[in-house]
Structure formats: structure tokens, C-alpha cells
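[step 3/7] fold_predict: job queued, chain A
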Amino acid sequence: MMLQSSRKYFEDISVGDYAESGEQVVDREEMLDFARRYDPQYFHTDPEAAKASVFGDVVASGLFTTVVWRRLDHQISGDIAWICGVAWKETRWPKAVRAGDRLRARWECVSKRESSSDPRRGVIEMEYRLTNQDGETVFSCLSVNLIERRR
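[step 4/7] structure written:
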């Protein structure tokens, strides 16, 4: 459990603040296992059949890509006093993720306001990105989040 004093509250985050994660290499077997369980489209699960797809090989499911982003995001936002996320907007997967890709997560605070319904919380909008080794965005979204205010 995180110590209360090490947490970042609404007041501690400003528009323009950002953080970037370390790198994670996409493991082919992990990618295939996830797709076989949760998104069994042939271009995610069958290396031989995927050769005939527009991708030319198996590619990660968008759901898998999002899970990798979430894992990396926890490295850089685990100290924030989150209440919960309430919406994702403009969610995109503009580039396919492949086995061996090296991915990094980033968040940037793009807006914030006090809650109109509860003075104990604030509303922060984050722009989230997951990029590959070439700096190309493979996942992005704007997320509306509730965060604790310092008491």
C-alpha cells in the first residue's frame, strides 16, 4: 500500500505535466496467448494464416496493446490519488503492434477543473500515448479522470 504523503493529488498536477515509462518488448507468445483467449481473429492468432492478411504477419490485438499501455502507465501514474476514470474519448490504434516492438507509455495533463458535484475531487483530462521504438503512436486516447483533492 502506498503511503499517503507520497501521493500526487489534484493540486499537485498542472496542465502540461507529463511522465514517460520505461520500455517493454512485446513477447510473441504472450501476444498470441492473449489473442487466442480474448480476440481470436486469425491475424492475431494464426501466424500462417496471418501471412495472407493486410498485415503480412500476426499483429497484436488492440485490446492487448491497451493492456500493455495500462501496465506501463502504472509505472508512471501509480502515485496519483486516482478515484476512477469516467470516460475515454478519441481512442485510436493507428499503427499495428508486432512481436519484438519496444513500447513506451506517456501521459500528459491537458486540462483540469474542480468537480462541480463534490469538493473532495477534481477532474483531470489526460492524453495517453503508447509509442513504439520508432516513435510511432500505436495507441492513444483522451481520458477523463476523477482524482482526490488534498484534504
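[step 5/7] annotate
The beta strands are 18-25, 82-92, 102-114, 121-131, 137-148.
The first strand starts at residue 18 and ends at 25.
exit 0
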